[in-house]
């Protein structure tokens, strides 16, 4: 794949937490409409990598979006380009209603009619959010909160959706429902970068997989090949 | 989604109730003695001050312990321009406001990079520095002596000679200030501010320019503070450094938290309560301060989100009792009372 087909690329991205080198120079990319999964145990640097990509954490290295160097852009400017992250712990505004959270998601979009249209498509994906429309976000169940977090991210018409362990703390059935939705969104052409600790289902959806360990990429392979890789399949498929 | 009929009627009633309350308080004051007029006038001036501070501390969830600096700029601006240079009060008022806004922008740009306690310390220092300047730069401010002979508020030679006339103007300006605050709160801008209060990283990740909006909220708060300072100078006719001292900060925080920080009407309501309470308790003589404190602490325990939110909850409870129970939205006023949960 040549550079023009790459939706997003981080080259030699590196980040420190104090004196801990949390992310060693790492190169990761997502193609147009591609579903990429990043696997790794707790503390491998997965969240740091996403935070560095959105510049929520200061990092060195370069970041490209559709071939354009966006290294100099701040977090909110990257969001405006269409790079939207669903944070671990969902990052919802707990005291605001579902409606207000969703409308804030469309913050980068100007013109209220587009927000209304987006609302309808989010409700089509997650009908339960429509039922909870005026409820305060903090009062939703874990699964509903995750749906809201993803719904809010979709309000911004992302071109790349990055998700930090969306199935964390959810019942398996709910988690699989959410992953299914991600698969459907990817089918519509949305680029997805999904970070998970362990997820057989996430691997079924993914085209390519990165494996992170101790702050560095230790493997990059097509998702289909992970089964034949003895050690990786033992860790991440079961 | 929601039933538009009942919600909008209730919304209209709830929206008009505070305005009716302001008119009622005003009517009461206009039929009272001069002393009551003075107390309620101070409440209105403080109401403007804390409605502005609420942009920064309530909606945006930041801390400023130094907003008295901008009230001092407004107060001294008006005093110097009107008493010493015979400026038209309205011109002095507006020039002081713009000046305060510019100073807030210049000071806020580096200062607002700080967070939490550090921001609180830096803003507190700002208030102290302004206080020192107002004492030491006696050529301009007359130091401890203060500036007297400030004319009443007026427009183009027409003076609002009596306190009652001035009170009507103060009430109108307070309503205007709250109206602006309400409009902005429910706008895209207001949502961005509340997103910052909710979580800065989440707001950034949604595309909100956090630094810029914090600065704008700070500047708005400073301009409201300046307006309050100018109005105080006109209302009393005299200012000195003590007027804008650290006590003002404590007073305004009490008003904010008592009334309902982050709500639209709460701060002004808090200003009224804090201004009136000591007067109502005056007959208790030496027990006055004790009872005052007991009341304040009780309100904070039983209505931790402030009186305005409590009133909203009571109204919701009363109206929903008459109707079949529906999965009622949490009271809008309550959900607005956001605290920084970062």
Describe the structure.
- The complex is a heterodimer of chains A (238) and B (342).
- Chain A contains 9 helices and 10 strands.
- Chain A has 238 residues and is α/β, with parallel strands linked by helices.
- Chain A has a domain at 1-82 and 198-238: 3-Layer(aba) Sandwich (Rossmann fold), CATH 3.40.50.300.
- Chain A has a 6-stranded mixed β-sheet with strand order 6-7-8-3-9-10, sandwiched between helices. Chain A has a 4-stranded antiparallel β-sheet with strand order 2-1-4-5, with helices on one face.
- In chain A, helix 3 (98-105) runs parallel beside helix 6 (142-154).
- Chain A is globular and about 45 Å long.
- Chain B has 342 residues and is mainly alpha-helical.
- Chain B has helices spanning 4-30, 34-59, 68-84, 89-111, 116-136, 138-141, 163-185, 188-198, 200-205, 210-236, 246-259, 266-280, 288-302, 307-322, 332-336; strands at 147-148, 154-155, 158-159, 238-239.
- In chain B, helix 2 runs antiparallel to helix 10 and helix 4 (89-111) runs antiparallel to helix 10.
- Chain B is built from 15 helices and 4 strands.
- In chain B, a hairpin with a 2-residue loop joins strand 2 (154-155) and strand 3 (158-159).
- In chain B, the strands form 2 sheets. A two-stranded antiparallel sheet of chain B has the order 1-4. Chain B has a two-stranded antiparallel sheet with strand order 2-3.
- At the A-B interface, helix 2 and helix 3 of A face helix 8 and helix 9 of B.
Topology:
The complex is a heterodimer of chains A (238) and B (342).
Chain A: E1 6-17, E2 20-31, E3 35-39, H1 46-54, E4 60-65, E5 68-69, H2 75-81, E6 83-86, H3 98-105, H4 112-125, H5 127-131, H6 142-154, E7 160-164, H7 172-187, E8 191-196, H8 200-205, E9 208-213, E10 216-222, H9 230-236
Parallel strand pairs in A: 3-8, 3-9, 6-7, 7-8
Antiparallel strand pairs in A: 1-2, 1-4, 4-5, 9-10
Helix pairs in contact in A: 3-6
Chain B: H1 4-30, H2 34-59, H3 68-84, H4 89-111, H5 116-136, H6 138-141, E1 147-148, E2 154-155, E3 158-159, H7 163-185, H8 188-198, H9 200-205, H10 210-236, E4 238-239, H11 246-259, H12 266-280, H13 288-302, H14 307-322, H15 332-336
Antiparallel strand pairs in B: 1-4, 2-3
Helix pairs in contact in B: 1-7, 2-7, 2-8, 2-10, 2-11, 2-12, 3-4, 3-5, 3-10, 4-10, 8-10, 11-12
């Amino acid at each position: 794949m040549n550079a023009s087909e790459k939706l997003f690329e981080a080259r030699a991205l590196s980040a420190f937490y104090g004196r801990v080198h949390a992310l060693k120079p790492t190169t990761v990319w997502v193609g147009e409409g591609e579903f990429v999964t990043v696997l790794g145990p707790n503390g491998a640097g997965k969240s740091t990598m996403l935070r560095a990509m959105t510049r929520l954490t200061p990092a060195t290295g370069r970041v490209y979006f559709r071939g354009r160097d966006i290294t100099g852009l701040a977090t909110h400017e990257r969001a405006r380009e269409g790079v939207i992250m669903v944070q671990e712990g969902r990052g919802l505004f707990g005291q605001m209603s579902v409606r207000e959270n969703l409308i804030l998601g469309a913050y980068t979009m100007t013109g209220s009619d587009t927000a209304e249209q987006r609302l309808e498509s989010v409700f089509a994906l997650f009908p339960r959010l429509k039922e909870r429309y005026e409820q305060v976000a903090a009062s939703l169940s874990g699964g509903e909160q995750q749906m809201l977090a993803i719904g809010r991210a979709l309000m911004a018409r992302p071109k790349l959706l990055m998700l930090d362990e969306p199935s964390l703390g959810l019942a398996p059935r709910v988690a699989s429902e959410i992953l299914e939705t991600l698969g459907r969104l990817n089918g519509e052409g949305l680029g997805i970068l999904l970070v998970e600790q362990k997820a057989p289902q996430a691997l079924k959806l993914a085209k390519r997989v990165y494996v992170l360990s101790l702050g560095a990429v230790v493997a990059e392979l097509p998702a289909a090949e992970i089964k034949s890789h003895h050690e990786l399949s033992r860790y991440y498929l079961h | 989604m929601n039933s538009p009929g009942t919600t909008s009627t209730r919304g209209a009633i709830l929206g008009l109730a505070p305005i009716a309350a302001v008119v009622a308080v005003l009517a009461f004051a206009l039929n009272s003695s001069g002393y009551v007029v003075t107390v309620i006038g101070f409440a209105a001036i403080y109401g403007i001050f804390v409605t502005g501070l609420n942009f920064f501390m309530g909606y945006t969830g930041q801390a400023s312990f130094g907003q008295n600096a901008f009230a001092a700029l407004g107060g001294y601006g008006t005093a110097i321009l009107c008493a010493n240079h015979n400026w038209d009060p309205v011109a002095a008022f507006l020039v002081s406001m713009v000046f305060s806004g510019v100073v807030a922008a210049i000071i806020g740009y580096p200062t607002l990079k700080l967070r939490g306690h550090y921001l609180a310390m830096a803003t507190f220092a700002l208030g102290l520095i302004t206080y020192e300047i107002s004492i030491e730069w006696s050529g301009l401010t007359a130091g401890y002596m203060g500036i007297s002979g400030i004319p009443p508020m007026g427009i183009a030679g027409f003076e609002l000679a009596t306190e009652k006339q001035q009170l009507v103007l103060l009430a109108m300006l307070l309503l205007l200030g709250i109206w602006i605050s309400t409009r902005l709160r429910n706008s895209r801008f207001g949502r961005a501010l509340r997103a910052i209060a909710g979580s800065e990283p989440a707001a950034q990740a949604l595309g909100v320019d956090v630094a810029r909006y914090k600065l704008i909220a700070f500047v708005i708060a400073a301009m409201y503070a300046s307006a309050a300072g100018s109005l105080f100078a006109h209302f009393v006719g005299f200012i000195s450094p003590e007027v804008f001292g650290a006590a003002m900060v404590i007073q305004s925080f009490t008003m904010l938290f008592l009334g309902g920080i982050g709500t639209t009407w709460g701060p002004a309501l808090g200003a009224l309560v804090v201004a009136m309470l000591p007067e109502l308790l005056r007959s208790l003589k030496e027990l006055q301060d004790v009872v005052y404190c007991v009341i304040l602490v009780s309100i904070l325990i039983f209505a931790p989100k402030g009186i305005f939110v409590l009133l909203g909850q009571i109204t919701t409870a009363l109206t929903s009792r008459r109707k079949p129970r529906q999965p009622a939205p949490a009271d809008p006023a309550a959900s607005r009372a956001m605290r920084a949960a970062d």
